[in-house]
Amino acid sequence: MSQRHTHSTRTAAGIIIFLVVSVVAVYWQTRGHAFIEFDDQIYLLENPHVRSGVSLANIQWAFSSVYAANWHPLTWLSHMLDVELFGMNPAGHHLTSVFLHAVNAVLLFTLLLRITGALWKSALVAALFALHPLHVESVAWVAERKDVLSALFWLVTLHLYARYVDNPALSRYLYVLIAFCLGLMSKPMLVSLPFLLLLMDFWPLQRPALWGPDTTMQSRPATIRPLHLEKLPFLLIGAASAAITVFAQQQGNAMTPLVASPLAERIQNALFAYTAYLGKMIRPTDLAVFYPFQTGLPAWKIFGAAGLLATITAVAFRERRRHPYLLFGWSWYIITLVPVIGIVRVGLQAMADRYTYMPLTGIFIMLVWGTANLLERGSESLRRLSYAMTAVVLAACLLLSWRQISYWRDTTTLFTHALDSTKGNFMALAVLGRHLERQGRLDEALERFNEALEIAPWYEYAKVHQGIILMNRGRLDAAVFKYNEAILQNPESVSGHINLGIVMGLQGRHEDAIRNFRIALDFNPRSEAALYNLGMELATTGKLDEALQYYYKALEIDPDDVNCLNNLGVALAGLGRFDEAIRQFTRALQLKPDFFDARNNRELALKKRGHD
């Protein structure tokens, strides 16, 4: 081994150590952070399959479920494995994401080094990836495990593709395909990855020199065609994943219809978001967990964004031969953001920091390679200045990331910061209201929900939770009014129909209650709350046999629901099936030894069985 190669290897090893240490140093504070009451409860805290850890039944569920409007079985399995290792202690869940982020930074560095041979450029891109504040959301938010996990397979896929290009063989091709599939099973954002493979063919792999000066317009189609065909299986698998994703999001009522959000508004928001991400990359301040979707953007913003995007695209295309990294990096950014840029609108946000986790890599490549190219023609003093500026930029990223991570320590801090960083943030107000509601601070919660509705009068979530507070205070008629308002706003509101059914049951309007629970199940047949409450109402009206069916269905979803086990036992005892009832009461007591109702019901069932 030559001395130069040994030196390069040691330098690369030092860079890897720096990347890992810097990620751990800046993100170490997350070990003391709590779960966030915004998707963390859906993904972990209130998800019985994840909460019970790895099991055959839960693995089957992970691959067959479209829970939370997504199909990402590997993400579910990663959360389950965390529960097996750390229980529900948030520290372990956070540090797993930190570990994956560190691995991703190393993979990015080694990938760029492999395909370009540029040691320090690759190192700087990886360092920006590791430390940029825009990436905090993907790492510090446990529910966004899918970002860091899918990025792992994304980068592994690119590594394996580079290996395949070095020595094309069917087995190596299949490895690339498998890694791509694993990435899609972590998060469907990888649907754009086949286009990245084509970009890598252009630069830096140059297979062949598609845009070289010796390539004629007549010969270009013949050279490109085999490369296109090579990507066809990836495109077909990506299309299948996209179809599954659309189905999952429709099932979860996560997609905003065109009637509610016209295509013109979405295109305007997409143009603005592309440029807004660039602005936040340069000046990463006022970052928020939720950015409200804005309608009626000023024309100057729309045309300005379109003009900027068109200008950069034109320059990158014009310089494709002399500076191919510009077209490569810019195309990476534009293409990988397409699935989440809002043309197909999912959720209520206009944009999200987490969406930049992999796309910003393209911009980092443009900036680093472009700056290095300019410095090659500069003086020695200018190069020395650039080294100092690089250190300043990385230090700034580290400090800003540290501060941004600190906002993620709990729900109140995170969403209070979101209110300070944005305007008209009805979502932040509603989440804070829900958090106050959980704490029993009902007056403050109502005030937050009212503020949210002043901004977004159509926001059903806030109306439903206003109704819950009114119901808990015994103001049943007022609660019914709020629930009906929510349902009028969104007739498919599952939570609206469930809570309306609950309050009608309290009013003695049992048939109306049953009707609302059935409507909720029409929209979401897997709603454990609707199944359980429907069972209760049927039991209340003496329809015990039918009630059993819904209790059993509810327990299929959450086998550890002690209230459902207790009520199932009561219904079984009412039918004279005391042995089965005793088993249900016993199971409830195993899960909750101080459950007085289950203990009392078990004793009564034992006595009645003895008399029989």
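the 2nd protein, sequnce then structure:
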Amino acid sequence: MRPPIRILLNLALITILFPAPASSQTGEIIRGEEGRALDGYLSRLEGVGFSGVVLAARDGQVILEKGYGYADREADRSVTAATVFTIGSITKQFTGAAILKLEMMGSLSTDDSITKYFSDVPPDKQGITLHHLLTHSAGLPGAIGDDFDITATADRFTELAMGTELRSAPGQQYEYSNVGFSLLGIIVEKVSGLGYEEFLRRNLFEPAGMTRTGYLLPDYTDEELATGYRNGNRWGSVVRKPMLPDGPGWHLRANGGIHSTAGDMYRWYQALQGDQILSSEAKEKYFAPHVDEGGGQSFYGYGWSIVPDYMGRRLITHNGGNGIFTADFRNFVDDEVMIFTASNLSTFAPVDYVTRDLSRLIFGAPLTLPPETISLTEEVLDGYAGIYRMPDEGLVEVERVGGHLLMRGSGKLAGNLLAGGSGATDDPAITRYSEQSADILRRALAGDFTGIHEAFGDRMPLEQIEAEERGWMEMREQRYGEYRDLEVVSATRAGMRVTVHVGIEYERGTGFIRYVWGGGELMGIELVPGLPGAEADIYPLSPTAFESFSLQSPVRVKIEFELDEQSGEPIALLFVTGEEKVRADKRTGGRE
């Protein structure tokens, strides 16, 4: 799983002194000023719900290794540095290393055709090589079955894979494929005569000193494992789901699902610095930027993504997850910096955003810190729940979710404020770009794409714009039906940058488009699934002051609740925008 390319916003740099930790957990390390800074950030993040483990190292020394939040909420068990997490598609780097290990042994070649290892390969797949499988360029689809389907034996999986239609000809283009890596795992078993996990254990894990990494061979106890939570509901752990006697079914095996600890992942990183696992020649192939992942910004090696220029640095990385558990591994090779992060909460998937912020802290890049929160009782938080009416008759609904509040807004004013706007209606830039966004979209929906072309300042050919715009229009009309109307639903300003969201009404629903403007030109267009800012998680800073926080957005919505002097009950909420406050009165009685 790779993160999508996003428009990056410049964030204000905040400097803060982090106190030393008051207590220690088993095996944790917090070393030096850098370690304390990372721990301070993560402690704040824990206050807005983060649960997971982090290990960061620099110049061959661990500066932070610590767990945050709960490994099992119901059992009141905290995450420690030794907690075991599934690491998802980071598994692919072990499969890649296994293939290279076998090549070092003279047992195979990455140039081999798969016809050497599988019989009855269909003609369209006979040109697939191990190199194509390792670099997601075989043309195979992403997946062909469920992770926990235990009917997917090696023979059954191979039959399904050979029968599936290719997305492209072998070697033609990058197409991320779990299927390809599972086939590589089957090849490991065929060539070595060992089970996939047993081969990894003998040839990769034991030489690296990794004792808590694998599927079933480490024989994990429930007390070691992190429990996954999907949208706050208990999901469990991968190794407690249906398994074959020697590991997961082949829809998951060798492409994902391996478990590990932060310490073991650091041992793996250390082992790759030397030659005890892979030779220098093998590592050149392992870390080579073989195939463009799209856009020329990152390339795929043999189980790794290679980013030549990230924050001005060379990065070798991979993430993984199943939408519940999520992990991220980053190796800044020229700076001797390694970061591993894992989480057991779907609300923090992908955890790449956490690793991104830790990278920024280590390298001194601008960063917006999470708010410093306090804990309020459920009774106090429940008191704020209800419906509040905005000045424009729009509504804001507030409900308690665990130890914080969730706000949902309807109406232009609420949408604007929840998206980080000021609520102002007299900003000339907001007015101009709102009108221009609606105009160029309305013209495009009528078949005239010159407005978008002009707004981009001729940076994109008109033919390319027309092809891309027609593509999403056809997709949405197939999904929602015939186009009816459009409306600007929010417009916000951050410095010289204005972000406009336009809602398009169709027969069977509404779709949204984000336009980002700056310097008098259109900087980007993006389809979005819903109106950003139409809801926000807000966290208590004091008994009456709250602030929103999201790793995926720089928007920070500040709220104050006004209490009745006599009863102490909330009577209004106020959006705090600079020196201004926009009031929404709490309704009494039932819903309208």
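Residues 462-480 form the longest helix (19 residues). The radius of gyration is 26 Å.
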